[in-house]
């Protein structure tokens, strides 16, 4: 039975839409679960394993080198050290507004939120953009871009790191 070009086009479009939407839906589930586990870990001391189950073994976290927890953090052990370093800086983390943009194995997240500095007690209201990649429904890479790293440092009571500092961990 012959089919029309319009009918074929609709079927192809539906198949393509289903394929594109299926990966981001799974990635979104993973990311939301990770964010929940991360906030619980930072604010309530929940186990690291609640986060690591959403991370690929070869996860890489890239942080602005000017931050106390800056540099590249590799693998689960590196990510654990990053979370420890970040926890040493912050004792509160709240996501007030988030916008998600998905594209196959990537999610870009714009977050407006608040952090509370552990040592100064200062609360920072800020925005950041995260580029996050996925493989097999696990997070493989985080690349956060801060709106204002100097405001982050001021909340922490820190001074900027030397130019060229780029630790790999």
UniProtKB/TrEMBL annotation:
InterPro entries: NTF2-like_dom_sf (IPR032710), SnoaL-like (IPR037401). Coiled coil: none annotated. PANTHER family: BLR2505 PROTEIN (PTHR41252). Residues 32-141 form the SnoaL-like domain. It comes from the Bacteria. This is SnoaL-like domain-containing protein.
